[in-house]
Design a protein that fits this description.
Blueprint: E1 3-5, H1 7-14, H2 18-25, H3 29-36, H4 45-55, H5 59-62, E2 63-65
Antiparallel strand pairs: 1-2
Length: 73
Amino acid sequence: MPIAVDIDVMLAKRKMSVGELADRVGITPANLAVLKNGRAKAVRFATLAALCEVLECQPGDLLRWEAEESAGP
């Protein structure tokens, strides 16, 4: 998927665990893991806003676009 999720980077910068972030955002650790590992197909703006509030960052600090590699001929 061309959208990369950098929650790990922000967790490390804030010295916060996945469990603590999940508790403070109000989602399950399992759902946070799905998002963190790039397996999510969607994210609600309310969840993204809560992540940004807790991590004191902007959405662009958590999500970035990467070009997909072409399969070739």
